[in-house]
Amino acid sequence: MRLTFLLRQLAPTLVLLGAAANAQAQARRPVIDVHLHAFDLAWFKVVGEQQPVTMCEGGFSPPMLERFPSLGECRGAMRSPTTEKALVDSTMAALDRYNVIGVTSGPRATVARWRSLNPRRILPAVGYLASPDSARLWAADTAVRALGEMTWQYDGMSATDSLPSAWFALAEQLDLPIGVHMGFGGAGAPFGMSPAYRMALSNPLQLEPILVRHPKLRVWVMHAGWPMLDQMVGLLETYPQVYVDVSAIDWFIPRAEFHAYLRRLVQAGFANRIMFGSDQMVWPAAIGRAIDAIESAPFLTARDKRDIFCRNAVRFFRLQSSLGDAC
Ligand SMILES: [Zn+2]
What we know:
By secondary structure, the protein is of the alpha/beta class. It has helices at about 1-25, 40-45, 60-65, 85-95, 110-115, 130-140, 160-175, 210-215, 230-240, 255-265, 285-295, 300-315, 320-325; strands at about 30-35, 55, 80, 100-105, 120-125, 145-150, 180, 220, 245, 275. The protein contains 13 helices and 10 strands.
């Protein structure tokens, strides 16, 4: 009874607060997240149905910490929701809150379901799970905007091996951008779920023969190839068609390390080819943390931030110009 009374008293305030939050989202310039995932929580379930999936800063899970105490402790842990519905609801809430439009990859059915829930915010991408042939069919019948995330180094393949080569040829044929995972594999990756993963296969310079072979290809290097900074700068300098995203490194490595890496890319003159990404997998809070990592970078100008959050992606993905005006 008392609760009902209290709620009745608070109702006008709650309505006003809700309206204010909506107005804030509307007022925010759009953010394009070029690296969003629509994954099923079931994929990640390694510790039992009711447990959240935990990711520690540095990209490892608590079981890896048991195996390698040298990892230190689990700092800055992200914990997933524990139901599929909560994962979808909280991800959609984060997209609304920050006015995000996401280039989204994952299993086809999951991406389609997310898109049907929020077509304005979910732009489908064809992930590496599909074969190039099934990707062709998928791309033909939906509003697919990109191919990626391509993650062949987790299967021990290099960018120039035959399967990756077939993907690059497909991207050129379909005239779609292709996003390639480059950089870290997560601490202890070869001893966990990815025994074939090799860090050496994540050198951005592995893309060089592909870029020469397909000069019109729109390639973006995901995670900006962290921590291969000199190689990344070299690739950007030599191949003006290459863009990068800063996904994952904007929330799961120490903030100071991310800022040092980003600062060098900007200092080297590439602020107009860096795109925002979250790499949100099953941790919706990563979206806000990643946005804050850009907002809080003291060396970025207001113009750099608008470029990174939105304008570079509008140009690279050839999104509608009205969106570019809103950036
Ligand atoms: Zn990745």
